[in-house]
Structures are given as structure tokens and as C-alpha cells.
Design goal:
heterodimer, A: about 170 residues, alpha/beta, GMP Synthetase, Chain A, domain 3, 2 domains, 4-stranded mixed β-sheet, 4 helices, 9 strands, about 25% strand, B: about 260 residues, mainly alpha, Ferritin, 10 helices, about 65% helix, globular, FSCA_dom_sf (chain A), Zn_ribbon_PaaD (chain A), Fe-S_Maturation_MIP18 (chain A), Phenylacetate-CoA oxygenase subunit PaaJ (chain A)
Chain lengths: ~170, ~260
Amino acid sequence: MVVADTNDSALRARAWAAAAEVVDPEIPVLTIADLGVLRDVSIVDGQVEVAITPTYSGCPAMNMIALEIELALTREGIRNSRVKTVLSPAWTTDWMSDDGRRKLKDYGVAPPQSGGGRRALFGEQQVACPQCGSSETEVLSEFGSTSCKALWRCTACREPFDYFKCH
Amino acid sequence: MAAASISVTESSLVLYALRRADDALILGHRLSEWCGHAPMMEEDMALANMGLDLIGQARELYSYAAKVEDNGNDEDRYAYLRDVRQYRNLLLVEQPNGDFARTIVRQFFYSAFADAYWRAMMGSEDATLAAIAAKSEKESAYHIRHSSEWVIRLGDGTPESHRRAQDAVDDLWAFTGELFHTDDSDAGLIADRLVIDPESLRAGWTDTVTGILRTATLACPGKSWMQKGGRSGNHSEHLGHLLSELQSLQRSFPGATW
């Protein structure tokens, strides 16, 4: 039994490392571990079970992410695996790692702000431009190129930019 | 050869999940009809994004219904292989898009309800419904903010936009009473605290809606006769047309995938 447990924990570590390298197809600088989309890896009766959680209910990237995880595990020599989607607890932008936030900003997407204003019907938000850092910015549309992003523009450097919506 | 409709064993919980799933699917489909037609690029994306959220919510609710029903049905079979009389959505969400003002007012009436509804449902004793509610609540907060801003912009805009927004409010008002519908099937679920009684949200909904309409300089219709029937499968003529488009592929080529 002890041997089996040790094997399981080694297998789990390998599986986690492989799954954690999978990137979000819509924001390829972020891994699913950076995003907090990768929730858990467990071994159930010798089978690797990877749990992921969607950022938004209809996020079309989830199927692609599940497929990429299976491919990554196969490359690692793990063939007996399955990916399941869990909803609870609901994903929030607070799960994004600090490293993830930095990578997002370097990529030109303003990282999500923590706390404040989401519930207010017309809540004011302050989002710094990821290009020039100015806070002279305004929202163009709360719905951007993917479900998790909004469209903003900087009135200082005149560049439009994506903002990863807080949620 | 056309695929036949499925039969569904509607326990109270299955019926509940299908009603909410159908609301989300049908409204999501209506919003998707705007894709490529909205008045500006940002709105094209906004309406498609909201449609995506709603269809995502529908998928979760259908999958849960399938699990509870345990009768070989799944999300696709519920969506593609039920006939119009088997659909349980609100009459409000199946109403045609009309002009942009009508689409926005329909969204506003629905979202003002859905936002408060899912927030309250986060306290459900049913873990799956509570989890679906927690995701939907975050999304509906964006939907109500988006449609409220537009109702104000249209109502307090030009004489033309005001007239169109007021027409939409007056025409769609009769469908808002059904938002608070419950029947015998719901009573047990409410007693067991699996679902909330929507009646408890009526005062809040009325406050939200009258407040925004006032800001938008639009007149609120007040008490009037309310249309109902969607929850028991008695739909307006519009739903059949919508389903003929939504289901045409699976009906004509059963089991088609890509």
C-alpha cells in the first residue's frame, strides 16, 4: 500500500506538471495554472483525473483546453486520464497568480483589478494602460474579443487595449 | 429522414432545470441572431458575448436535468429534439428581436430579474444549482449593466430612439408577469429550499425597472393584464420558427457532428 501511495503521488506530480504547462488558446502567454483554471489533479483507481473550471459559463476555450491537457499527459506517457469540469467554487479573477498578472500586462492586456465596483450598476473603475501606464483611460465596451475581456482605450497614448474583466 | 422528438420524464427538479435552461438557450439564440447585424461593432460583440454566456448557462442546466432525469437524454437532445410544446421558456425571451431598442428592452426586463434571481439562488440547498447560480450571477451583473445603460441612452436620446424604446416597453410589458411564475411543481422545491420563490424578488425587480425607466424618461406601464403560458408549453407563434432554424441540422441529419 505504501508503495502504491508513493507511486500515486509521483504520478500526480508528473501529471500536474504536464497539465500546468497547457496555455489558454486565447491568451497564449498564460498557462491554465497562471489563470487558476487548473483546479486539481487526483488519481482515482490508477486513472489521472484533471479538474478544470471555466472562467465564464460559455467559454469556448474549455473544450480546447481539455484536449490540450490530454495531449500533454500523453506526451508525458500518461495515457489513462480524463478531464472533468467543476463549477464550484466559481472561478474569480483573484485566482490568477501574480506571475500571471505580470505576464498578462507584458502581453498588452490590462490585468484584472481586485475588488470594488462590480456590483454597482454604474461603478467607476480605474484601469491603467498596459502600454504607457497612464490612468487616463476609458471603457469602449464591456464586452471584448473574448468573454473574459473588455475593450478600453488610453486617452494619453491613444492606444486601444484589452482589459481582463474582473469577476 | 427526420429525427423524432424525445420524451422527457419531467419530475419537479427536471422541469425546473429545463425551464431555466430553455430561458437561457432561447434568449441566447435570439441574441446570436444579431451577429453581424448590430448597429456597431462593439454592440455586435456585446450581444454575441451575452448570448455565449446564456448558452453556457443553458448547457450547465440541461446537463444537470439529464443527470437528474437519468433517462438517456443529454444537453443536445433537450435542445435539438424537443418540439415547441415541450419547451418551457418564458414567452418574453422568445419574442422576436425587432429593432435594437426592442432587443435591449427585452434583455433589460430579463436581466433585471436574472441578476437578482441567480444571486438569491446561490443559497440553494442543491449544490449543483448553487454552483450554476454563482457563475450565472457574475455574468448577469454585466448583462443588467449593459442593458440599463442602453435603455437610458435610447429613452433619453433622440425623439426617434425615445419613441422606439417606449414602444418596446409598452409591447413587452405584458410578458414580464411570467418572470414570477410558480406552480405546484415548484412548491415542493421551494419548501425544500432547493429553489427560491421568485415572488420574493418582485419588489426589487420593480424598483430596478421603474428607477431605470424614470432615468430614461420612459413611462412605466403600471398594472395591466399579464400574458403567460410558456412555462407549460403554450408558446407564441414565434418559438416554432426559432426552433425550426435552431434544430434544422439535427432534425435533418440525426446525430450529425463535426
